[in-house]
Design goal:
Elements: E1 4-9, H1 18-33, E2 38-43, H2 53-59, H3 68-73, H4 75-86, E3 89-95, H5 103-112, E4 119-122, E5 125-128, E6 135-140, H6 154-163, E7 169-174, H7 177-202
Parallel strand pairs: 1-2, 1-3, 3-6, 6-7
Antiparallel strand pairs: 4-5
Helix pairs in contact: 1-7
This protein binds flavin mononucleotide.
Length: 203
């Protein structure tokens, strides 16, 4: 069976995007490793539909009791969740916007974090329902150092994946691109190369 990569891009910049470039680099390393790699591209810059009251009501009733309208309103969420379920590995590339996630990525998170489908509350607290799989989060920033006190992006994204059951999360950062873009991108590519050579050593 061939490997299946889900590649998610969140930058609204579609022509000269650093995060897209790094996601592309990651993808090319995956293709080198798995020549039959199956890839699903999810480009959030194409727009995402925000959840609303009808969405919440539809998601909180059992599937078999939903009417046609309620099924329709959850169709995007179902589709995005299936993309996560079907993937063996996920690479999510995102810039930092205003110290946090781009708006379309936040809407994607609202669409995939669904009670009864990707998480559920138990007597012991919340439990993620997805099976664990490797997730690589690629973050680019203009000036904010990743991991600093004003980075409200990296820990948040890790938490979202943990919340839905995915704990195998690695972070690749190309931060402070405004200061030395070439060097920051080079370092991020080195981080990606290291992930692949660590995997080779472990195999
Ligand atoms: C709307 C907007 C908000 C931004 N906010 C921040 C920020 O809070 N901190 C930061 O370091 N860079 C910020 N930036 C810069 C981007 O994070 C930086 O240019 C990033 O690398 C862009 O990635 P991309 O080339 O893949 O689009 C912002 C850029 C935009 C367009």
């Amino acid at each position: 069976m061939s490997k299946h990569l889900l590649k998610i891009n969140a930058s609204v910049n579609t022509t000269d995007s650093a995060s897209r470039q790094l996601a592309g680099y990651y993808e090319s390393r995956m293709i080198d490793k798995y020549p039959n790699l199956q890839i699903t591209h999810r480009d959030l810059s194409m727009g995402m539909t925000p959840i609303n009251e009808d969405w919440i009501n539809a998601s909180s009733i059992p599937e078999e009791k939903r009417d046609q309208y309620q099924q329709k309103i959850l169709a995007l969420s179902d589709h995005l969740i299936n993309e996560l379920v079907d993937a063996d590995e996920i690479v999510l590339a995102t810039p930092m916007y205003n110290f946090s996630v781009p708006g379309n990525l936040k809407i994607w998170i609202d669409q995939i974090a669904r009670a009864g489908k990707t998480f559920q509350y138990t007597a012991e607290g919340p439990r993620g329902l997805l099976s664990d799989k490797p997730v690589k989060i690629i973050i680019t920033t203009g000036g904010t150092p990743v991991g600093s006190e004003i980075d409200y992006l990296s820990a948040y994204l890790k938490q979202i994946f943990n919340f839905i059951g995915i704990t195998d999360v690695s972070l690749i950062a190309a931060d402070q691109l405004m200061m030395d873009r070439d060097n920051s991108l080079k370092q991020a590519k080195t981080q990606i190369d290291q992930l692949f050579s660590n995997q080779q050593q472990a195999a």
